[in-house]
Amino acid sequence: MIVGIGVDVVDVTRFAATLERTPALAARLFTEAERGLAVHSLAARFAAKEAVAKALGAPPGLRHLDAEVCVGEHGRPFLRVSGRVAETAGAMGVRRWHLSLTHDGGVAIAYVIAEG
């Protein structure tokens, strides 16, 4: 059963400028493992974190660091959640996450399905 769906779109150039203008922002948005990636990958991961929040109904207290985009077998992205995201998802009955990322034409898009 689908518990929630979230989608987000990020303009890569604008996102890169924001990170350049505010260097400390990367530490608030991305885990240590995510930080070394190219900007288009960071934009897609930011979109994924926003899509997770939307799939959960955007409750207060969610942190971007509580949703990490990891890479599995054959390059397939998956979510690792912790903290308030994991707590909220558990209370909603989320047992599995589905994640799709793309970046092309200057935009990054993430689509998240929370399954119960």
TrEMBL record:
<comment type="function">
    <text>Transfers the 4'-phosphopantetheine moiety from coenzyme A to a Ser of acyl-carrier-protein.</text>
</comment>
<dbReference type="InterPro" id="IPR037143">
    <property type="entry name" value="4-PPantetheinyl_Trfase_dom_sf"/>
</dbReference>
<comment type="similarity">
    <text>Belongs to the P-Pant transferase superfamily. AcpS family.</text>
</comment>
<dbReference type="GO" id="GO:0005737">
    <property type="term" value="C:cytoplasm"/>
</dbReference>
<dbReference type="InterPro" id="IPR002582">
    <property type="entry name" value="ACPS"/>
</dbReference>
<protein>
    <recommendedName>
        <fullName>Holo-[acyl-carrier-protein] synthase</fullName>
        <ecNumber>2.7.8.7</ecNumber>
    </recommendedName>
</protein>
<keyword id="KW-0460">Magnesium</keyword>
<feature type="binding site">
    <location>
        <position position="8"/>
    </location>
    <ligand>
        <name>Mg(2+)</name>
    </ligand>
</feature>
<keyword id="KW-0808">Transferase</keyword>
<feature type="binding site">
    <location>
        <position position="50"/>
    </location>
    <ligand>
        <name>Mg(2+)</name>
    </ligand>
</feature>
<dbReference type="GO" id="GO:0000287">
    <property type="term" value="F:magnesium ion binding"/>
</dbReference>
<dbReference type="GO" id="GO:0008897">
    <property type="term" value="F:holo-[acyl-carrier-protein] synthase activity"/>
</dbReference>
<feature type="domain" description="4'-phosphopantetheinyl transferase">
    <location>
        <begin position="4"/>
        <end position="111"/>
    </location>
</feature>
<keyword id="KW-0275">Fatty acid biosynthesis</keyword>
<keyword id="KW-0479">Metal-binding</keyword>
<dbReference type="InterPro" id="IPR004568">
    <property type="entry name" value="Ppantetheine-prot_Trfase_dom"/>
</dbReference>
<dbReference type="Pfam" id="PF01648">
    <property type="entry name" value="ACPS"/>
</dbReference>
<keyword id="KW-0276">Fatty acid metabolism</keyword>
<keyword id="KW-0443">Lipid metabolism</keyword>
<dbReference type="InterPro" id="IPR008278">
    <property type="entry name" value="4-PPantetheinyl_Trfase_dom"/>
</dbReference>
<keyword id="KW-0963">Cytoplasm</keyword>
<keyword id="KW-0444">Lipid biosynthesis</keyword>
<dbReference type="GO" id="GO:0006633">
    <property type="term" value="P:fatty acid biosynthetic process"/>
</dbReference>
